[in-house]
Amino acid sequence: MITASSSPRFSRLAKCVGFTALLTMTSAVQAAEQRIISTDAGSTDILLALDKGADLVGVDVTSVIPPQLKAAKLGYHRMLATEGVLSLNPNMVVGSEHMGPAETVAAIKKANIALLQLPAARDAKSLKENIVKISAFVHSEQQAKPLLQRIDQSMAKVAEHQLPPNSKVAFLLQMDGKGLRLAGQGTTGDDFIHLLGGESLGAHRGYQSVSAEALLSLQPDVIIVASRDMSRSPVAMLLEATPLLKHTPAGTQQRIVAVDGRQLVSGISLEAMDALVDVSAALNAAKPAS
C-alpha cells in the first residue's frame, strides 16, 4: 500500500524515467505562485482533493469545479487551443496521456511549462499511483496521505459486499433521446463492474447501442445505469422507457441501480470510487441474486 511520500513505493515512482527531472523543474515553482491548468477531469478531481483548487487557472470542459473557483474553461482535452492555454500564463499543466493536439503539447514544452501527463486510472492501484505522481508534481505529498487511505477504506467496503460469483452485469449509458449503450471491454463501465466482482456482459470493445430485447436475452443479474442527468431517477426513466427490463433477473430482484455518469468521465477517479461504494451498498441492500 502506498501511504506516504517516504515509502519505497513512492520512491520507485518518483525515479521513473523523466519524472525526477520533472520534479526538479517544478521545485522552482514550489516557492512561487502555482498557476495550474488541468486538462482532465480525473486530474482536476485529485487536485481539488489536494486542496489546490485556488491554484487552478484553467480546466478542460469535463472537469467539475466548485462555483467559487474562477478557473477558465479550455474546451475538450484532445482539442486544446495553444493560444487559450498559453494566455493563462500557467507554470504547471496536468492532464491525460491523450491530451492534444500535438502542436499544443509541443508549445507547452517549448514554453518550459512543467507538464505531467498520466494514463487514466483503471483500478485502485493505478488511481493511487496517479495521486502520488500529481501530489509530488504540485509538492503536496502530505495532503496525499488521507486520499490514499480513503481509497483503501473504499475498497475494503466494496470487498465486504462483492457480487456473488459469476454475476452477470450490464453497465448502461443512458443517452438523451439516443437509446442505451452497453459498456464493453476497455471502458470505465467495464472497470467498474470488475471492481464490484461481477462479469461484464459486454463482449465488444467500447460502448455499443443495445436494444431492450437484446438486454432481455442477456438475462443480467445486475444492471447499472449511468446518466449525466440526476434530476430524475435514472432507474425510473430506464424502466419507463424499456419496461421489458423489469423481466430480467436484475429487474425481478430489484438489482437495477444508478450512478452519476459525470463521476466516471475520466476513468476510475476519486469520485468514481465514492460511486463504487454507493453502488456496492445499494446492491447489498437489494434482494440477493439467486
Secondary-structure-based class equals alpha/beta
| CATH class division of the largest domain | Alpha Beta
Q: What is the helix content?
A: 40-55%
Quickly count the helices: 12
How far apart are the first and last residues' alpha carbons, in Å?
35 Å
Let me know the largest β-sheet.
6 strands, mixed
* Helix and strand element order: HHEHEEHEHEHHEEHEEHEHHEH
Radius of gyration: 20 Å
Overall 3D form = elongated
What is the β-strand count? 11
Number of domains: 2
Architecture of the largest domain, CATH level 2? Answer: 3-Layer(aba) Sandwich
Mean pLDDT: 89
| Unreliable residue stretches | 1-6
In short:
The protein has 290 residues and is of the alpha/beta class. It has two domains: 8-157, Rossmann fold (3-Layer(aba) Sandwich), CATH 3.40.50; 162-285, Nitrogenase molybdenum iron protein domain (Rossmann fold, 3-Layer(aba) Sandwich). It has helices at 8-14, 19-31, 41-49, 82-86, 102-110, 124-137, 141-160, 188-196, 212-218, 234-241, 249-252, 270-285, and strands at 36-38, 56-59, 72-73, 92-96, 114-118, 168-175, 179-183, 199-200, 207-210, 222-227, 256-260.
Description:
The chain has 290 residues and is an alpha/beta fold. It has 2 domains: 8-157, 3-Layer(aba) Sandwich (Rossmann fold), CATH 3.40.50; 162-285, Nitrogenase molybdenum iron protein domain (Rossmann fold, 3-Layer(aba) Sandwich), CATH 3.40.50. It has 12 helices and 11 strands. It has helices at 8-14, 19-31, 41-49, 82-86, 102-110, 124-137, 141-160, 188-196, 212-218, 234-241, 249-252, 270-285; strands at 36-38, 56-59, 72-73, 92-96, 114-118, 168-175, 179-183, 199-200, 207-210, 222-227, 256-260. The strands form 2 sheets. Strands 6, 7, 8, 9, 10 and 11 form a 6-stranded mixed sheet that branches. It has a 5-stranded parallel sheet with strand order 3-2-1-4-5. The longest helix is centred in the middle third of the chain and has 20 residues, at 141-160. Residues 35-287 form the Fe/B12 periplasmic-binding domain. This is Iron complex transport system substrate-binding protein.
